[in-house]
Amino acid sequence: MTRLILFNKPFNVLSQFTDSGTLGTRRPTLSDFLDVPAVYPAGRLDRDSEGLLLLTDDGKLQHRISNPRHKMPKTYLAQVEGLPDDAALQRLRDGVTLKDGPTRPAQVRRIDTPSALWPRIPPVRFRKTVPDCWLEITVTEGRNRQIRRMTATVGHPTLRLIRWRIGEWTLDGLDSGAWREVDLTSRRFS
Predict the structure, then answer these.
(1) Which of 29, 80, 172, 189 has the fewest CB neighbours in a 10 Å radius?
(2) What's the chain's average pLDDT?
(3) Is the model's pTM score more than 0.85?
(4) Which CATH architecture group holds 4-179?
């Protein structure tokens, strides 16, 4: 039976089970939160990003989730510096050009501060003179630090980034550092 784990990865945790560390310092990893044998991350989430990470024991499912060719949508909640105007949001929707080429168009909308969010430790630095706002951004590719690079390109650096959804799976009801297994008995992946 295929296993699929939904994990709400906290800030500053590596998306892997071990850490070779630098200078003898061990950083938090998935093994600090999950004791589930033979599952592996389907994709990555940067150490300074939070949110949904899928883990599975099925190589085909892992490939389907993580390979950009399958264009599985991924939705992020991004707290950005400043207040993006309509032109900046449209640039994101149209696709921006990064150093590694143009991005695919994204779905982007301004949202209210999400009410279901957990506090980040450490908290995002607050500055009285610089406003911030939240964006919901959905992309169908997964380049390295893509959302952060996209928002910076339009002049609004990301302060906090949370992956909320991958395909049909979401963080709904899942606290930071918690996980749950999904029943896939009626599903087939090719």
Answers:
(1) 172
(2) 91
(3) yes
(4) 2-Layer Sandwich (3.30)
